[in-house]
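P.,

For your records, the input lines for the assembly:
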Amino acid sequence: MKFTIQREQLTNAINIVSKAVSSRTTIPILTGIKIVAHEDGITLTASDSDISIEQYVPMESGEHQWIEDITPGSVVLPSKFLGEIVRKLPGEQVTISVNERFITTISSGRSEFNLNGMNAEDYPCLPQIEEDKILSLPSDLLKTMIRQTVFAVATTETRPILTGVMWELRDGQLSLVATDSHRLTTRKASVESAASLSFDNVVIPGKSLIELSKVLPDDDQLVDLVITDNQILVKINYILFYSRILDGTYPDTSRIIPQNTKTEIILSTKEFLGAIERASLLAREGKNNIVRLFTRPDGMVEISSNTPEVGKVTEEVAPSSVDGEDVKISFNAKYMIDALRAVDSENIRIGFTGAMSPFIIRPTEHDWILHLILPVRTNQ
Amino acid sequence: MKFTIQREQLTNAINIVSKAVSSRTTIPILTGIKIVAHEDGITLTASDSDISIEQYVPMESGEHQWIEDITPGSVVLPSKFLGEIVRKLPGEQVTISVNERFITTISSGRSEFNLNGMNAEDYPCLPQIEEDKILSLPSDLLKTMIRQTVFAVATTETRPILTGVMWELRDGQLSLVATDSHRLTTRKASVESAASLSFDNVVIPGKSLIELSKVLPDDDQLVDLVITDNQILVKINYILFYSRILDGTYPDTSRIIPQNTKTEIILSTKEFLGAIERASLLAREGKNNIVRLFTRPDGMVEISSNTPEVGKVTEEVAPSSVDGEDVKISFNAKYMIDALRAVDSENIRIGFTGAMSPFIIRPTEHDWILHLILPVRTNQ
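Structure tokens returned:
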């Protein structure tokens, strides 16, 4: 194998696939990046047990010549060194060549590295995917949907299925649901797909989605998603992003969302978030980061917390409106902060149905987002 | 105690003194910040076993009114909470008041905190300093001198005196020296002081200097330094910065600096640094981060390293000049990288006196800086 490539192109490709490199693995070859040189370009691949990323770099794109003098072949190089070396090389071009013992020469300007490589034939194969279920949505929308749900997945493995985000497609509407059983969040969007296409219970690990969102560009170019029984494949530009799908049945969360509310409060998202963040400064020291919210006779919403060993805090927020019964409720401030940061709306509507029933936070401006938080019982 | 202060002024003052707060201490009151309200302003103080910082905020400065309605008094507040609370308060002004049980009310806008404070009378006193030995130098110069020396102090406590930077003043010239016994760095500068003032063996802990340099502004206003037997006091604006001085005698380092060299090489600092950084990418995996340098018959300087389990690297640098004998020497790349990053000069002059003798790196443009590195013996 031999080729000469623009250093910037190689750096970008390494940065992308590196997100799938196992930092801890019992399979040494997975600490490497597989490089395959074809007649018309090169492919870089990295993989861990959950995700695999493949990036293709064509010889030329538009009027740019990115790669020259390709002799086809392949090698696996230690990703830790490959990335640092290429980033620090002095020239604009890099020449990579491999000998029969997989010793790889990387040269640029007056710098020459010889790295011990591995045989690419020992590298595991990526999943074969039949492209039957395809949907498309803009990259920036997918990125936003991930950001607005993934924070709510369970971080412990008590119920492994809850460490993923559940995807469901029905009538051209994609829904993402995440819950750690103390709070729940859903995000919906219309997407392009075959009219007949529908699925549910596609549960993608939260960690995979966080890595995917780092790879997605911040513009509205369309991303294709292919769903199979145990894999999802995301295609964007020259990148293929594979993630496994979690085994098991996601709980039916539709039933826990209350349909009627006894009180509805409309608040400025920013003002309310500021008050909750301050109230949680002291509460964080306590066990459960509990803050209390109640509607005062003078029409104000009061948020407070009390951590006897440190002190207490009282915040007032002026709501736009309060409809219904008085409210007096306690909850984990972190869940509220997460939810408010994920709401893309100037104002929010909170619906309560009782001191011990889950309450709902929605943007006032649209119906795409719903957060649900379970209150906690306190003695105060 | 009670006063109302501009939130920005209070935040700045907390940020400054927080650098001296003990994160781990057996004296609980030292986790706090002492606030004293005087008739004409307030003083914040924090301290750990090595350094103490005091910041005064006057009631008014120029046409700005910073503090209003002062009732004198004092309290010690937990620094962890105080900083976060003040940073997140909603209003532009903050009112702080303390009751007789040291419970402190911090209010701003619609937010009110009650923090459990401590009695300021239990806070240790700062050292009393007689201002007999005073010198002055520009803040940015002092900051540069610290940056250019402090990296070379010992990080282990085997010889505690080497964890400090040694200061010496003679004939209006201030010298800073740091060494960890494998490399040494010196930085000199002319300063303003009484003609009769001179001192040596003033060894200031490296950690104190790092904190001091965070407090120093990036401009050329004059900083006053007061030296006593066991403390140094730095005065800048309304800040007093105290550090203890290390006990013991700093080794006489002047004798280990070779006066004659057998070979002198002049190189571009940036090009040479790039080559050493790349050569050390693989060497870092080895035990001592060793790279080899030799002068080739074709006039080039070759830098290489070999880490059998990973690979090897060869770099070429074209020197501006090579005078004297051929050189073949091995050294720790980290020491060279540290030295080159601290040289404010486009080109450097390296003087060698033999494969096992210390070598010297100096800027070509001035004489204020000298780095010395001990080579290592290798079998290669």
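Two observations worth noting. The first strand of chain A starts at residue 2 and ends at 6. Residues 295 and 301 of chain A are 5 Å apart (CA to CA).

Regards
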